[in-house]
Amino acid sequence: MNDEERERRLQIMKKKLHKELFEKESDKDQDSSFESKDKIKHVKSSSSLSTYLQSESASFIKMAKQVFKKKKKGEELTKEELAIYNKIQKKRKLDKTENSESRKLQKLNKTKKDNRYISSYASKPCISAEKVITDLSIYEEFGNPENKKVKQGRYETIKLLYPNGKYESYPLITPKKSNELDPIYDIYATTQMVIRYCVPLKYQKLFGDTKNGIIRSIIKARNRKNKEGLKKAITEYNKTLEFIINEKAFVNSEEFGDVSAPELVFHILEQAYTRTVAQKSEMLNLYRGFSNNVYGEVNSNLVTEFIKNSELKPHHIFIDMGSGIGNVVLQVASQVLCESWGVEIMEIPSTFAKAQCIEFISRMRYYGKPCGKIKLRHADFLEDPEVDRILKVADVVFVNNYAFDANLNQRILQKFLDLKENTRIISLKNFVPLDHKINYRNANSLESILRVKEYLFGHDSVSWTNEEGKYYIHRVDRSILQSFEKNMKANRVH
Ligand SMILES: C[S@@+](CC[C@H](N)C(=O)[O-])C[C@H]1O[C@@H](n2cnc3c(N)ncnc32)[C@H](O)[C@@H]1O
After folding, report:
1. Nearest CA, atom 25, ligand 1
2. Closest C-alpha residue for ligand 1 atom 14
3. Dist. CA 24 → ligand 1 center (Å)
4. Ligand 1: distance of its center to the CA of 349 in Å?
5. Domain DOT1, which positions (predicted)?
6. In the chain, what percentage of residues exceed pLDDT 70?
């Protein structure tokens, strides 16, 4: 493919991609920088009568309003009216207790010093497995020994309940190829994750274990490709989870609950990826090879290692310079609860990043889990003033610069001049030679304020090779330079 043809295809695809991913989004969400419309939403308390009547029938609402009018006027209520009045008052009382509890927790949360954030995207419905699977020719019916072709609208579905009380619809079909979205695996993995990482310990036994009960039934039905068995097991699962939801086990878990386990974050990232990027992922390879815009990813296990070795903490600010489809930014925000920024120059990965982020945030709420503040920018990190502002306050900077040329790496290094003391820079190529020593010739160079340490990563940690490799963590440390300058001065005086 020549450059002209590549550019033509890119333009067509960009238009198509935007239409496909965001056609259902309201205009108010179409913010080009993506981050500025994201607003904090606090837990609101509302005590108006209509709040308590939302789920009631029209005739009940009419009656209730009359009852409250009568009560206000001090008129006597009939037995039936009194029952209505008491029912609503009971709801109000319950809500009041919950809200005062929530306020207490909010206060407590302030002392926790993490950067959890309730984005407006959290209230969006997730993209269901049923909705995202459009090419049925690569699927077959689950548990059908004749392997009949799956026809549009003629397969069975299962509705799976999540801790936030919402359902996701799954078609009971399996892919013929292993790299496609497998609804049966997703159902299985989601139930495991919810039971292990979301359900409070005291309720977990209601689901049994691998030898007994609901967990066993789901595993058995999946292994034996038993459709009826799976439907029955999921009905039981939903009923049990509904009971736990009604016990208010997940109330406030997003605002005040513990951070997610890495395995749960990996699972949610995978779900968000399969719902938004997977089917169109070949578009990421349209960029010219051996350029600064070559797309490549570090995998979730390696990101967990970065988090640990860079000592990234919940009150910190993280930035991924060249964030691609945003995978690292999302993982860091949810696994650490810190403020997490990403900046990406290319339009296609940026568009994917936005779609992934919306889906990811929505899904974090489905599991009732907190997430840090996420800010994604479609910009050139060398030019964007917002990046300069963030670099001054960042605690950890990540640059996947494996494919960047020497000139770009040098320009990035210049950006590090304003980093605060002790900021860590994680990169795939080092910015400073491992044996760098300050002398009077290089004392003014940027390398002299960075200390660097080399780390090894294992097989299958990055998308561009299965081999092991190296990464680097630099630390801003001006003290070495300061003592060098002090020594120089002292030598000059004597
Ligand atoms: C190898 S990808 C890394 C994706 C992600 N950070 C990861 O490690 O999984 C590097 C990304 O940097 C982006 N990039 C290169 N130069 C950039 C610039 N000047 N400003 C913003 N992004 C840039 C590329 O377009 C590419 O998507």
Report:
1. 293
2. 322
3. 28
4. 9
5. 164-489
6. 86
Residues 336, 371 contacting (CB under 8 angstroms): no
Q: Give ∠ CA 170-34-133 in degrees, rounded to 5.
A: 20
Alpha helices (runs of H) in 194-252, residue ranges in sequence order:
201-204, 213-223, 227-246
In short, whether 350's Cβ falls inside 6 Å of ligand 1 is: no
Q: How far is the CA of 426 from the centre of ligand 1 (A)?
A: 14
> Which of 320, 400, 405, 427 is the best mutation target for the ligand 1 pocket, counting ligand atoms within 8 Å of the beta carbon and taking the most?
400
Q: Counting every residue, how long is the chain? A: 494
pLDDT tens for residues 366-392? 999 999 999 999 999 999 999 999 999
Question: Can you spell out the DSSP letters for 388-441?
Answer: HHHHHH-SEEEE--TT--HHHHHHHHHHGGGPPTT-EEEESS-SS-TT----TT
- Separation of CA 342 and ligand 1 centre (Å): 9
In the structure, how many helices (H) and strands (E) does the chain have? 16, 11
Chain-centre distance of CA 336, in angstroms?
A: 11
Ligand 1 close to Cβ of residue 471 (< 6 A): no
- Closest atom of ligand 1 relative to the 380 alpha carbon: 20
Q: Which is more confident, 179 or 103?
A: 179
To the question of pTM greater than 0.90 for the whole model, the response is no
- Atom 19 in ligand 1: residue holding the nearest Cα: 380
415: number of Cβ within 10 Å: 17
Indicate the domain borders of the chain: 128-251, 262-487
Q: How far apart are CA 431 and CA 471, in angstroms?
A: 11
Query: Above 90 in pLDDT, residue 42?
Result: no
Helix, coil or strand: residue 468: coil
Ligand 1: centre distance to CA 310 (Å): 20
**Domain covering 262-487 in this structure, CATH number:** 3.40.50.150
Measured distance CA(173)–CA(156) in Å, rounded: 8
Residue to probe by mutation, ligand 1, list 285, 295, 401, most atoms within 8 Å of CB: 295
162/147 Cα distance (integer angstroms): 30
Which residue has the CA at smallest separation from atom 7 of ligand 1?
297
Q: What are phi and psi of 167, to 5 degrees?
A: -110, 150
State whether residue 457 is helix, strand or coil.
strand
Query: C-alpha distances in angstroms, 63 versus 52, 77, 86, 348, 457?
Result: 13, 12, 13, 55, 67
SS3 373: coil
Ligand 1 atom having least distance to the Cα of 322: 12
